[in-house]
Amino acid sequence: MTASEPSPTNDRPPSWTPPDPLPDGLRTRRLVIRAYQPGDARALFEAIDRSRASLLPWLPWAATQHLNSQQSAESIDLFRRVAAERPMRPEHNAVFGFVLGIFRADDGALVGGTGFNRIVHDSADAELGYWLAADARGRGYCTEAVGALIDWGLRPARDGGWGLRRVRIFAAAANVASCAVPRRLGLREEARFVRDRWVPGHGWCDTIGWGVTVDEPMPRAIGSDAMPRSGR
Prior knowledge:
- The chain is an alpha+beta fold.
- The protein has one domain (26-220): 3-Layer(aba) Sandwich (Aminopeptidase).
- It has 6 helices and 9 strands; from the N terminus they run E-E-H-H-H-H-E-E-E-H-E-H-E-E-E.
- It has helices spanning 41-49, 52-55, 69-84, 90-95, 141-154, 176-184, and strands spanning 26-27, 31-35, 98-104, 110-120, 125-132, 166-172, 188-199, 203-213, 227-228.
- A 9-stranded mixed sheet has the order 7-8-6-5-4-3-2-1-9, with helices on both faces.
- A hairpin with a 4-residue loop joins strand 4 and strand 5.
- It is globular, with a radius of gyration of 18 Å.
Protein backbone atom coordinates (compact mmCIF):
# COMPACT_ATOMS: atom_id res chain seq x y z
CA MET A 1 0.00 0.00 0.00
CA THR A 2 1.36 3.43 -0.89
CA ALA A 3 1.07 6.52 1.28
CA SER A 4 -1.53 7.99 -1.07
CA GLU A 5 -3.91 5.03 -0.85
CA PRO A 6 -6.69 5.18 1.76
CA SER A 7 -6.31 2.83 4.69
CA PRO A 8 -8.90 0.04 4.82
CA THR A 9 -11.12 0.02 7.87
CA ASN A 10 -13.49 -2.41 9.48
CA ASP A 11 -15.18 0.31 11.50
CA ARG A 12 -18.65 0.78 10.09
CA PRO A 13 -20.03 4.29 10.57
CA PRO A 14 -22.92 4.57 13.03
CA SER A 15 -26.47 4.37 11.72
CA TRP A 16 -28.13 7.61 10.72
CA THR A 17 -30.38 9.31 13.21
CA PRO A 18 -32.47 12.42 12.54
CA PRO A 19 -30.81 15.68 13.58
CA ASP A 20 -32.05 16.98 16.92
CA PRO A 21 -33.60 19.45 16.52
CA LEU A 22 -34.67 18.87 12.93
CA PRO A 23 -33.37 21.42 10.41
CA ASP A 24 -35.58 24.49 10.48
CA GLY A 25 -35.89 25.15 6.76
CA LEU A 26 -34.00 26.18 3.66
CA ARG A 27 -33.95 29.36 1.59
CA THR A 28 -32.88 29.48 -2.05
CA ARG A 29 -32.81 32.44 -4.41
CA ARG A 30 -36.57 32.20 -5.03
CA LEU A 31 -37.93 29.56 -2.66
CA VAL A 32 -38.32 28.48 0.94
CA ILE A 33 -38.45 24.77 1.76
CA ARG A 34 -39.84 23.95 5.20
CA ALA A 35 -42.13 21.67 7.14
CA TYR A 36 -45.85 22.36 6.76
CA GLN A 37 -47.51 24.32 9.55
CA PRO A 38 -51.19 24.04 10.56
CA GLY A 39 -51.91 27.36 8.86
CA ASP A 40 -50.82 25.93 5.49
CA ALA A 41 -53.82 23.59 5.20
CA ARG A 42 -55.97 25.71 2.90
CA ALA A 43 -53.05 26.59 0.61
CA LEU A 44 -52.03 22.93 0.43
CA PHE A 45 -55.54 21.83 -0.51
CA GLU A 46 -55.88 24.54 -3.14
CA ALA A 47 -52.47 23.82 -4.73
CA ILE A 48 -53.31 20.13 -5.01
CA ASP A 49 -56.91 20.67 -6.09
CA ARG A 50 -56.06 22.92 -9.02
CA SER A 51 -53.31 20.46 -10.06
CA ARG A 52 -55.10 17.19 -9.38
CA ALA A 53 -55.66 16.20 -13.01
CA SER A 54 -51.95 16.51 -13.82
CA LEU A 55 -50.69 14.95 -10.58
CA LEU A 56 -52.57 11.83 -11.63
CA PRO A 57 -51.77 9.14 -12.56
CA TRP A 58 -48.21 9.61 -11.23
CA LEU A 59 -49.20 10.31 -7.62
CA PRO A 60 -52.11 8.01 -6.71
CA TRP A 61 -52.72 9.79 -3.39
CA ALA A 62 -54.05 12.79 -5.35
CA ALA A 63 -57.19 10.76 -6.17
CA THR A 64 -58.21 10.14 -2.56
CA GLN A 65 -56.41 12.66 -0.32
CA HIS A 66 -56.58 16.43 0.16
CA LEU A 67 -60.14 16.54 -1.15
CA ASN A 68 -60.90 19.52 1.10
CA SER A 69 -59.08 21.83 3.51
CA GLN A 70 -59.99 19.68 6.51
CA GLN A 71 -58.30 16.64 4.98
CA SER A 72 -55.20 18.73 4.29
CA ALA A 73 -55.21 19.94 7.90
CA GLU A 74 -55.40 16.33 9.09
CA SER A 75 -52.55 15.38 6.76
CA ILE A 76 -50.37 18.19 8.06
CA ASP A 77 -51.05 17.07 11.63
CA LEU A 78 -50.02 13.53 10.62
CA PHE A 79 -46.85 14.78 8.85
CA ARG A 80 -45.81 16.64 12.00
CA ARG A 81 -46.50 13.70 14.31
CA VAL A 82 -44.61 11.28 12.04
CA ALA A 83 -41.61 13.61 11.82
CA ALA A 84 -41.45 13.63 15.64
CA GLU A 85 -41.51 9.82 16.01
CA ARG A 86 -38.33 8.33 17.50
CA PRO A 87 -37.84 5.83 16.05
CA MET A 88 -40.13 6.41 13.07
CA ARG A 89 -42.50 3.52 12.45
CA PRO A 90 -41.45 1.56 9.32
CA GLU A 91 -44.82 2.05 7.61
CA HIS A 92 -44.56 5.81 8.16
CA ASN A 93 -40.99 5.92 6.86
CA ALA A 94 -42.09 4.10 3.70
CA VAL A 95 -44.96 6.47 2.94
CA PHE A 96 -44.29 9.81 4.63
CA GLY A 97 -40.84 10.24 6.15
CA PHE A 98 -40.10 13.94 6.46
CA VAL A 99 -42.63 15.87 4.36
CA LEU A 100 -41.79 19.43 3.34
CA GLY A 101 -43.52 22.21 1.45
CA ILE A 102 -42.07 24.41 -1.30
CA PHE A 103 -43.02 28.09 -0.98
CA ARG A 104 -42.17 31.16 -3.04
CA ALA A 105 -39.90 33.40 -1.01
CA ASP A 106 -41.34 36.69 -2.23
CA ASP A 107 -45.00 36.14 -1.38
CA GLY A 108 -45.12 32.89 0.63
CA ALA A 109 -47.32 31.10 -1.92
CA LEU A 110 -47.24 27.31 -1.69
CA VAL A 111 -46.05 25.97 -5.06
CA GLY A 112 -45.32 22.29 -4.35
CA GLY A 113 -44.09 19.60 -2.02
CA THR A 114 -41.01 17.48 -1.45
CA GLY A 115 -39.24 15.57 1.31
CA PHE A 116 -37.21 12.52 2.31
CA ASN A 117 -38.69 9.07 2.83
CA ARG A 118 -37.74 5.39 2.65
CA ILE A 119 -34.70 6.23 4.74
CA VAL A 120 -32.26 3.35 5.25
CA HIS A 121 -30.72 4.21 8.59
CA ASP A 122 -27.82 1.75 8.41
CA SER A 123 -26.52 3.38 5.22
CA ALA A 124 -27.83 6.94 5.77
CA ASP A 125 -29.64 6.66 2.43
CA ALA A 126 -32.91 8.43 1.60
CA GLU A 127 -35.30 8.75 -1.30
CA LEU A 128 -36.36 12.23 -2.41
CA GLY A 129 -39.76 12.91 -3.95
CA TYR A 130 -41.39 16.04 -5.32
CA TRP A 131 -44.47 17.55 -6.96
CA LEU A 132 -45.24 21.02 -8.26
CA ALA A 133 -48.53 22.89 -8.62
CA ALA A 134 -49.70 23.12 -12.23
CA ASP A 135 -49.59 26.93 -12.34
CA ALA A 136 -46.02 27.03 -10.97
CA ARG A 137 -44.45 24.84 -13.64
CA GLY A 138 -42.13 25.94 -16.40
CA ARG A 139 -40.14 28.34 -14.20
CA GLY A 140 -37.43 26.04 -12.89
CA TYR A 141 -38.85 25.93 -9.36
CA CYS A 142 -38.72 22.14 -9.08
CA THR A 143 -35.13 21.88 -10.27
CA GLU A 144 -34.13 24.69 -7.89
CA ALA A 145 -35.89 23.05 -4.95
CA VAL A 146 -34.63 19.52 -5.58
CA GLY A 147 -31.05 20.68 -6.12
CA ALA A 148 -31.16 22.63 -2.87
CA LEU A 149 -32.76 19.74 -1.00
CA ILE A 150 -30.04 17.33 -2.15
CA ASP A 151 -27.39 19.72 -0.89
CA TRP A 152 -29.29 20.17 2.38
CA GLY A 153 -29.74 16.42 2.80
CA LEU A 154 -26.04 15.65 2.32
CA ARG A 155 -24.86 18.55 4.49
CA PRO A 156 -23.65 17.51 7.98
CA ALA A 157 -26.13 18.04 10.79
CA ARG A 158 -23.61 20.29 12.58
CA ASP A 159 -23.86 22.66 9.59
CA GLY A 160 -27.65 22.75 9.56
CA GLY A 161 -28.20 19.78 7.23
CA TRP A 162 -29.71 16.32 7.51
CA GLY A 163 -26.43 14.38 7.64
CA LEU A 164 -27.33 11.85 4.94
CA ARG A 165 -24.70 9.91 2.99
CA ARG A 166 -26.71 9.21 -0.15
CA VAL A 167 -29.84 10.57 -1.85
CA ARG A 168 -31.79 8.78 -4.57
CA ILE A 169 -34.68 9.69 -6.87
CA PHE A 170 -37.03 7.34 -8.75
CA ALA A 171 -39.54 8.22 -11.46
CA ALA A 172 -41.58 6.45 -14.11
CA ALA A 173 -39.82 6.75 -17.46
CA ALA A 174 -43.11 7.91 -19.00
CA ASN A 175 -43.27 10.84 -16.56
CA VAL A 176 -41.15 13.10 -18.74
CA ALA A 177 -41.39 16.20 -16.54
CA SER A 178 -40.37 14.35 -13.39
CA CYS A 179 -37.44 12.64 -15.12
CA ALA A 180 -36.22 15.98 -16.45
CA VAL A 181 -35.41 17.26 -12.95
CA PRO A 182 -32.55 14.88 -12.03
CA ARG A 183 -31.28 15.08 -15.60
CA ARG A 184 -31.09 18.87 -15.48
CA LEU A 185 -29.18 18.58 -12.22
CA GLY A 186 -26.71 16.19 -13.79
CA LEU A 187 -27.44 13.31 -11.40
CA ARG A 188 -26.02 9.90 -12.17
CA GLU A 189 -28.58 7.53 -13.66
CA GLU A 190 -27.84 4.27 -11.90
CA ALA A 191 -30.83 1.97 -12.37
CA ARG A 192 -33.60 1.14 -14.79
CA PHE A 193 -36.27 -1.36 -13.80
CA VAL A 194 -37.99 -2.58 -16.96
CA ARG A 195 -41.81 -2.50 -17.02
CA ASP A 196 -42.02 -2.82 -13.26
CA ARG A 197 -44.88 -0.42 -12.49
CA TRP A 198 -48.42 -0.11 -13.77
CA VAL A 199 -49.50 3.45 -14.53
CA PRO A 200 -53.16 3.98 -15.52
CA GLY A 201 -53.34 5.27 -19.07
CA HIS A 202 -49.75 4.21 -19.78
CA GLY A 203 -49.68 0.51 -18.90
CA TRP A 204 -46.49 -1.15 -17.67
CA CYS A 205 -43.71 1.45 -17.43
CA ASP A 206 -40.03 1.41 -16.63
CA THR A 207 -38.76 3.04 -13.44
CA ILE A 208 -35.53 5.03 -13.62
CA GLY A 209 -33.33 5.69 -10.59
CA TRP A 210 -30.73 8.40 -10.01
CA GLY A 211 -28.35 8.81 -7.09
CA VAL A 212 -25.65 10.96 -5.55
CA THR A 213 -23.41 10.41 -2.53
CA VAL A 214 -21.77 12.84 -0.16
CA ASP A 215 -18.23 11.73 -1.04
CA GLU A 216 -18.38 12.45 -4.77
CA PRO A 217 -18.19 15.77 -6.62
CA MET A 218 -21.57 17.45 -6.61
CA PRO A 219 -23.21 17.68 -10.05
CA ARG A 220 -23.86 21.08 -11.52
CA ALA A 221 -26.57 23.32 -10.11
CA ILE A 222 -26.90 21.48 -6.79
CA GLY A 223 -27.12 23.76 -3.77
CA SER A 224 -25.44 26.70 -5.46
CA ASP A 225 -27.63 29.23 -3.61
CA ALA A 226 -29.12 27.18 -0.77
CA MET A 227 -28.79 28.45 2.79
CA PRO A 228 -30.43 27.22 6.03
CA ARG A 229 -33.15 29.53 7.29
CA SER A 230 -31.74 29.40 10.82
CA GLY A 231 -28.40 28.87 12.47
CA ARG A 232 -29.20 25.33 13.59
